[in-house]
Amino acid sequence: MTKHSFRQDLIITLTLAVCCILLWFVPSPKRLTDDRAVKEQAVVLEVDNNDLQKHGLLEYGSQSLKVKLTSGPRKGTVYQAENLIRAQMELDKKFSSGDKIIVAMMPEDDPASAVIRAQDYDRTFWTWLLAGLFCIFLCIFGKWTGVKALFSFFLSVMVIWKAVIPMVLNGFSASWTIFGCVCFLTAAIMFLVAGINRKGVAAFSGAIAGIFAGLCMTHLFTWLMKINGATLPYIQALYHSGYDFLNIQDLFSGAVILASSGAVMDLAMDIASGVEEVAIHNDTLSKKQLTASGMRIGKSVVGTMTTTLLLAYSGGYITLLMMFAVQGNSLFEILNNPLVAAESVKTLIGSFSLVLVAPFTAIFSGILLHKKQVIS
Question: In the chain, where are the structural domains located?
Answer without folding.
Answer: 38-122, 171-368
